[in-house]
Write a structure and sequence with these properties.
Elements: H1 3-15, E1 22-23, H2 24-29, H3 34-42, E2 46-50, E3 53-56, H4 63-72, E4 79-80, H5 82-88, E5 101-107, H6 114-118, E6 124-130, E7 139-144, E8 147-152, H7 154-164, H8 171-179, H9 186-195, H10 199-212, E9 232-233, E10 239-241, E11 246-248, H11 250-253, H12 255-258
Parallel strand pairs: 5-6, 9-11
Antiparallel strand pairs: 1-3, 2-3, 4-5, 7-8, 10-11
Length: about 260
């Protein structure tokens, strides 16, 4: 390899931190042609992990490094959300994720690239493409092994949990999670609830926050939140809550009594 090419690969390796994915299209935009990328692979500088993506040779890359690439190189909204985001933020307390599954959300028009879906990240990726929450609200940046990625903040993550409930996540667990979120910013919660498109999520969130008795709940302006009309049944053969007009599991309605 020529001295010039070695200089370019050194520039490239200094451009991105270890542990992240290099997307082919992004590299071309940065001046690294497909032919040059092939030379880097042949010279064992880079290793392909699928069509359109590479990593440093001998680098150990986890799913967070792929998320980094999608966010920073492709400008996608794909992000760790729900219970996974709460875990990354250290907000799950004693509720650990027992199964080896990472919950990832993206906009309804976004799809994970084939290389992302087919590569073995050492964990299962549970991807949900939705637009029930705005794409530009409710996020925070966290450091992951030398680089940063965008994840849902606690309020958004809890709403994502409720979006998946009760089919993909237990409502009792959602309530136990919200019990631990006693320091949410009411203005941030208010903004997300006003912009949330899911009546189910909004009613469940307010019911649980009210039930948990958090101080920040008293600062919410409920009259500004559209809760829709009519009754909503979250589960069959449940117990009806007249304040939020939702039918809930009996064990959730009686949770406080059961834990006295």
């Amino acid at each position: 390899m020529s001295t010039n090419n070695k200089s370019k690969i050194n520039q490239l390796l200094s451009l991105l931190p270890a542990g992240v994915v290099f997307q082919t299209k992004w590299l071309v935009e940065k001046g690294y042609s497909l032919d040059l990328q092939k030379r880097y692979r042949n010279s064992k500088w880079l290793t392909s992990i699928g069509i359109g993506a590479m990593i440093r040779a001998n680098d150990e890359v986890k799913y967070e490094g792929a998320i980094y690439a999608l966010q920073k190189q492709s400008g996608m909204n794909v992000h760790p959300g729900g219970r996974t985001a709460l875990s990354l933020l250290g907000r799950t307390h004693y509720l650990e994720i027992l199964e080896n599954i990472k919950t990832v959300f993206g906009h309804s028009k976004e799809k994970l690239p084939t290389w992302f879906k087919e590569y073995n990240w050492g964990t299962k990726i549970d991807f949900h493409a939705t637009e029930f929450l705005p794409i530009n609200e409710g996020f925070t940046e966290i450091e992951v092994k030398g680089f940063s990625i965008k994840v849902s903040n606690p309020a958004r993550a809890l709403m994502e949990c409720l979006y998946l409930a009760p089919k993909f996540q237990e409502l009792i667990e959602c309530y136990e999670l919200i019990e631990g979120l006693n320091d949410l910013n009411p203005s941030q919660v208010q903004l997300l609830l006003e912009k949330c498109k899911s009546v189910k999520v909004k009613r469940l969130f307010l019911y649980m926050a009210d039930k948990a008795g958090h101080e920040w709940f008293t600062h919410l302006k409920l009259e500004s939140i559209d809760l829709g009309t009519g009754k909503r049944s979250i589960v069959k053969n449940g117990v009806y809550d007249s304040k939020y007009m939702i039918t809930l599991p009996k064990e959730l309605k009686e949770y406080d009594k059961a834990n006295l």
